[in-house]
Design goal:
This protein is an alpha+beta fold and 219 residues long. Among the domains are: 70-134, wza like fold (2-Layer Sandwich), CATH 3.30.1950.10; 139-218, Outer membrane lipoprotein wza fold like (Roll). 22% of the residues lie in helices and 23% in strands. The protein contains 4 helices and 10 strands; from the N terminus they run H-E-E-E-E-H-E-E-E-H-E-E-H-E. The protein has a 5-stranded mixed sheet, with helices on one face. Strand 1 and strand 2 (83-86) form a beta hairpin. The longest helix is centred in the N-terminal third of the chain and has 24 residues, at 3-26.
């Protein structure tokens, strides 16, 4: 190779090598340098956000609180005013600052509103929730030829068949044709005949909805 050609190659090859390096650098995303003294906080070090107060239970707008029920009263950011309370036989509960408050005969939402209204004298914009944690005021009784005699706690809208099923059903000695319900309502003692077999057939007209204090008698 002539000396002149060697000089041309010596100039041309390094130029190609530099262009290849530039292309390789251009294909990579730029990595911004972190600001001096300002490291990004890790996700685990971020402060936790306090949750909102718990909403009242599913039946908060329909269930009526009664004596012996256990309710949970929660006042947002006021732990000394929150806690689990037993509704006394007189239908009252006792709360700090407020003293006795009527609970029986109210739904959880109504009671929460009443407590919040009374607390406005002491706290700005009180946020109150009430949840029924244990139901003891709504019971029905079963007597006679059933698997389990005695009181059972009611569920909302409990029917005759549901109550008998909760008690283990009727025994083989039961007279299904003579089952009846004893009910005290408005000071009157009432005996309600039951068509048990018709209810079992799926006729909802005979699967009576029970009321607190009903006694189901299975001869």
């Amino acid at each position: 190779m002539k000396p002149g050609e060697l000089l041309i190659w010596a100039f041309f090859v390094p130029s190609l090598f530099c262009q290849a390096q530039d292309k390789d650098s251009a294909g990579k995303p730029a990595q911004p340098a972190p600001a001096v003294g300002q490291p990004a906080p890790a996700a685990s070090t971020l402060p936790a956000v306090a949750p909102p107060p718990l909403a009242a239970g599913a039946a908060a707008d329909t269930y009526v609180i009664g004596a012996s029920d256990v309710i949970a009263v929660s006042v947002w950011k006021e732990p000394t005013l929150s806690g689990s309370l037993l509704v006394r036989p007189d239908g009252m509960i006792s709360l700090p600052l407020l003293g006795d408050v009527q609970a029986s005969g109210l739904t959880p939402l109504q009671l929460a509103d009443q407590i919040a209204t009374k607390l406005k004298k002491f706290i700005q914009d009180p946020n109150v929730s009430v949840v029924v944690s244990q139901i003891h005021s709504k019971v029905v009784y079963l007597m006679g030829e059933v698997g389990k005699k005695g009181p059972i706690e009611m569920t909302p809208g409990m029917t005759l068949l549901e109550a008998i099923g909760s008690a283990g059903g009727i025994t083989e000695f039961a007279n299904a044709k003579k089952i009846y319900i004893l009910r005290d309502e408005a000071g009157k003692h009432e005996k309600i005949p039951v068509h048990y077999k018709e209810a079992l057939k799926g006729n909802s007209a005979f699967d009576l909805v029970l009321k607190p204090g009903d006694t189901i008698v299975v001869p």
